[in-house]
TrEMBL record:
Gene3D superfamilies: Zn(2)-C6 fungal-type DNA-binding domain. This is Zn(2)-C6 fungal-type domain-containing protein. It comes from Rhizopus microsporus ATCC 52813. One of its GO terms (biological process) is DNA-templated transcription. Residues 27-61 form the Zn(2)-C6 fungal-type domain.
Amino acid sequence: MQPVTSRPASEHNVDSRDKKRQKRNRACDLCRRKKTRCDHDPAYPNIACSSCRNYEKECTFSEPTKKRGPSKGYVEGLEGRLKRVEELLVNMLQDMPPNEIADVTAELEKDSDAYKKSSEENKDAYFFAGSSSGYYLLSRLFPQDQSHPLNQMFPKPINNNDDLIIKRPSELRPSSSGNNQDWKLPPKGLMDYLLNVYFERVNKFLPILDKDEFYKLYEREGSQSSQVIPIALTTCCKVIKMLDKNHPIFAEYGVEKEALKKDLTFQLHLHHLPDFLEPKLQSIQLLLLNAAHSESWLTQGEAWLSVSIAIKMAQDLGLHRASFQPQGLSKTELEARKRLWWSAYILDRYVCAAVARPLTISDADCDIDYPESPDHFHYFAKLSSIHGESIRTLRSPKIQVLPDKSQRIENICKFIQQKLVEWENNLPSHLQISDKEFDQISQPDSINPALKEKLENGAGQLYFAYTAVHLSVNKYLFSTNIDQSNVASVCQELIRKAFYTLSYINVELLLSFWCFSSYFLTEMLTIIFINCKNPDPAIASEAKYYNEKLKSFYRHLEETLEQPSLVPYIDLIFKLGSGSLEDKEKDNNSQGTLGDEFLHQTSLINNINGLEWSEIAKLLFEIDQGSDGTKFM
């Protein structure tokens, strides 16, 4: 056997020129002719394959690769079939009457208009694609012909942030909601009045809707707009709930409050089918509107689901990211989208706290700035951030099983309280209630109109929200080793000032932000129950006094909410949670009667399932037994 020799220089040059065209697994010329497996290794080009060595040949790769084309007559056959189809279509059109052809043409034009309108509505639609998305990688690997019409169907980067914000492809289908001609709207004057009340009394505190954008659609398209009518009717339903049944506006237009509300609600259920698969600003607004204004005494679990879906839609649209700068939007429109996101953020904190559910938004996922205006909404968002931190830490299941649970809870509460103090100190004067103003509020006989206006335009709402957060943090301290008398005094002072403020404003104002008002009243009720068991007679007596005042507020609100009374339930829990064992045994008969009265109100159960009675009972038990297991009452 002859030794392996190197290839000539000329052949080596030919091989170098053809190197780019060769594949690593390509067989040599000899193995291809004999159809045998080639074990030539491209890593060692000077070493021939085993077949070539046996035949004392050199491995060459000179023969070009053969590419098989279509079979003979295939292209001609396709052309013939296409020609026959054209002839059939021509013959069919000749046999059809002209009026049928016109009908088909009109139907096609109608479908084309629907597709065109849908494309126009979605032309500025974007969605958020995280940094791990493969869109930007695929676009670099497979560059697209920008002149090709199908290029519009593929995602596009926005301002070079192709790993963050992607333009949503146009939807080649009619709009899912469409224009519905079956809406039976109330008189325009009545509807305009209800919408004006919403924007003047409700939306300014929680700006879910952008007033300018809403009225631009409402005045331009009116009942023909599939976007504005569901939102308009939803806001009208929420305002109707706030108004007294004897309000002059109902008499002016000859309608009854309950009948009007039922009719609008029925139409919304009948004509409007929400699309949860295609994120839109209108869908987010509708979900948040329904979650923010509960129809019952307390926030329900459905509100948590609505807020969660709205948040996921908002995140898909990139509202939570500062890098989201859609082309063609003005600064005013961007600020409106920012307010919508923070409205969802605030609702997430308070709804989750009210129904004891996990938070949906993680602060680590958001880098959007706080809203610039209005001022009270800016500080409300900051307060909600503090509230979210307290929920995340104090309600964590993991903290309940730690051996040093009491000390950890105490440290967390002190940290949150310090942040609340800093938040309160940073409030501007028109949103902060000074001690001097509280002295004026404590004397309701002399009402200061300027102070009343201040309380009803941001300062009062913020103080209610602040009190709710402060009380929700302090109630965890009752089960620790900290001085209970000091905690009870602090809570009692907060409740005292809250009642001063409540007595100074119109109680109906609470209904304009009912999601937060109901949570605020519930937290006060929880602390009142706890303080009624306090060993200090002064604190216990004052707590019982405030319990009666709170029940009077609930009775006053019953007339507007038109819900079963919550007072019997409060009385039942109050009797079970206060007094000595002897008093409880003495009042067995009266409690049984009260319990029977409550059990007959079956509809009330559905209205109070958002209240954390299990948590209240647990706190009362821990207080009664003491944090170290020793009874101190």
